[in-house]
Amino acid sequence: MKKLYIETYGCQMNVADTEVVFALLAPHGYERTEDMSEADVIMANTCSVRDNAEQRIHGRIEQFYLQKKARPEVLVGILGCMAERMKEELLESGKVDIVAGPDAYRSLPVLLQNAAPGQPQINVQLSREETYAEIVPVRLDRNGVSAFISIMRGCNNVCSYCVVPYTRGAERSRDWHTIVREACDCGSRGYKEITLLGQNVDSYIYDGCNFAGLLKMVAEACPGLRVRFSTSNPQDISDEVLEVMASHANICHHIHLPVQSGSDRILEKMRRRYTRAWYLDRVTAIRRIMPDCAISTDVIAGFCSETEEDHRDTLSLFEEVQFDAAYMFYYSERPGTLAARKYPDDVPQEVKTRRLEEIIALQNRLSLESNRNDVGKRFAVLVEGPSKRNPEELCGRTGTNKMCVWPDTEHRAGDTVEVEVVDCTQATLLCRLV
Ligand code: SAH
Ligand code: SF4
Ligand code: F3S
């Protein structure tokens, strides 16, 4: 057996892909190690979404290179979005033996076989069909409780700031038979929660089955599993999906609905195909159909030409929606995207940083308010394991995706317990067992 070490960066789709890579290489004699110093093959599954994500990988490649210098037989592979975007540049560094894009993982056994010092191998071919549909992933077993299931690949939206359509190619949906089978399989292996993954889950379509249909099928096939999904796109999320969520007790009431900006002018330049009013209407629909549903978002501060007024529109949208949580970034120009070609990256870095800080400060307050609203309420929580701070406490999430901690020495990971919220911080609900 050879030992394979993989570090995973970027989004949940990359985590799911790393699990596929372990599955594809297992029959060729590669077993997983978590110790880089004993690995025969060292890989990074990479992300290109922002410049600092790529800078981190460059740093890791230097670390891998030190391993290679100490043990010249070690092979280093770069997988994922940055492999796709940087292609030959990575090979030319002389520090990398294998470069494989997101649709090329089936060729990894051959690439590994052919790679040798001075003979690097590359496959960055994108595909219109590849979904790794029948591959049974080797779960990274983050806690043995929660599994990711990829339901589609690629993206057809081409938002002007975003590199994903270039690194992951055209959108394609995976055969729902294999999704339902994988979900049931997770259930029989003891998993308690699954998250269906896609860049735009609402545009899932396979053999006439849309996302609402898929969600219903999965929820009904696996009544013992909590079902989550990500990411929803404001332009496409339908009332039909909301009704399915409302009528199935095992589908979590949490929607990740990235808004990106609160200004119509900026949304148009971003090529997000909705307006502020449309977004707010979707939020109203969510709250009408599921009053207890949590909503989280992504936002970008300082996109090309963003004025103070545009920025204030983002702040006011946050106030209006009262998000439960948000992932917040400043704009990072990505080479080759529409925005990089059409619009100057003209908001000075210090202005981007200041606007981002203002959004973060506002969201910190909103998160605290959202948590305070939960004090006194009871929730069913899926236990993830001991809390980080205190071994006498357990942690786990509500259906609304809020982290809870409570004193408990009886239960363990995978149990579902009922807790009452007694206090909170901005990040955590402090609870007691009921
Ligand atoms: N498919 C998802 C997003 C995937 S990328 C969606 O459409 O919502 C995750 C997040 O990264 C995006 O929502 C966006 O907020 C952020 N992002 C993407 N490109 C970026 C860039 N060039 N600069 C800064 N943030 C970016
Ligand atoms: Fe990127 Fe837009 Fe596709 Fe999301 S929907 S992955 S932001 S192009
Ligand atoms: Fe990053 Fe690729 Fe995901 S760019 S966010 S790893 S799709």
Structure characteristics:
single chain; Rossmann fold; binds iron/sulfur cluster; OB fold (Dihydrolipoamide Acetyltransferase, E2P); pyruvate-formate lyase- activating enzyme; binds S-adenosyl-L-homocysteine
Describe it for me?
- The structure is a single chain.
- The chain has 434 residues and is of the alpha/beta class.
- It folds into 3 domains: 2-123, Methylthiotransferase, N-terminal domain (Rossmann fold, 3-Layer(aba) Sandwich); 146-372, Alpha-Beta Horseshoe (pyruvate-formate lyase- activating enzyme), CATH 3.80.30.20; 378-433, OB fold (Dihydrolipoamide Acetyltransferase, E2P), CATH 2.40.50.
- The protein is built from 14 helices and 21 strands.
- The strands form 6 sheets. The chain has a 6-stranded parallel beta sheet, with helices on both faces.
- The longest helix is centred in the C-terminal third of the chain and has 26 residues, at 349-374.
- The model has no long low-confidence stretch (mean pLDDT 96).
- The protein binds S-adenosyl-L-homocysteine, iron/sulfur cluster and FE3-S4 cluster.
